[in-house]
Amino acid sequence: MHSSYFLSNLGLELLAEKMRQAEGYKDSETYKIYDDDNSIISALPNFHLIKGMKVDGPISQVIAHGILSWIYFAWENRFRKNIANELSVQKDDVMSDLMGDIKLLRDKIAHNFAFLDKDLKKLKVINWLKPGHIILRTKDMNKIQSLINKMEVHVLKK
Predict the structure, then answer these.
(1) Are the beta carbons of 115 and 89 closer than 8 angstroms?
(2) Which residue of 41, 70, 128, 140 is surrounded by the most CB atoms within 10 Å?
(3) Prediction pTM value
(4) What is the 3-state secondary structure (H, E, C) of 104-133?
C-alpha cells in the first residue's frame, strides 16, 4: 500500500505538469470526468485540480487517509487474526500500540472530518502529529511504513 501511495504522489505531480504544458490548457477552464453514458460525474476548475495534484496536496491527503483506513482494516480482519491463531490466543488479546494509533487516526478520519483534537495525547507511537486536521505528508507515510515494518505486538495476559 505504501508503494501505491508513493507512486500515486509521483504520478499526480507528473500528470499535473503534463496538463499545464498541454496546448490550450487554461487555469480558468473546468476539468470534467464523464461516465460511460457521457454524463458528467464530477467537475473541478483546472486551477484547483493542478493545486490538488501536488505532492502532499489535497488529493494526496485523500489517498493517505484511505490507505491508513485500509491498513487498519487489514490488521483487524486478517493479520491480527492470523497472529492470534498462530499463538493460540483470542484475536482481541493481540495488541499493538502502532495499530492502536492507526485505529484512532482512522476513526478521526471517518467520523470527525479528519480532525484530531483532545485525542492527540492518546497517540503512543505516531506522536509527532499536531492538533487540527490530520495532514499526512510523504515523510509521515514513510515513517508510518517504517514503523509497520518493525512493528511489535504483545499478547494481553489473563
Answers:
(1) no
(2) 140
(3) 0.88
(4) HHHHHHHHCCCEECHHHHHCCCCCCCCCEE
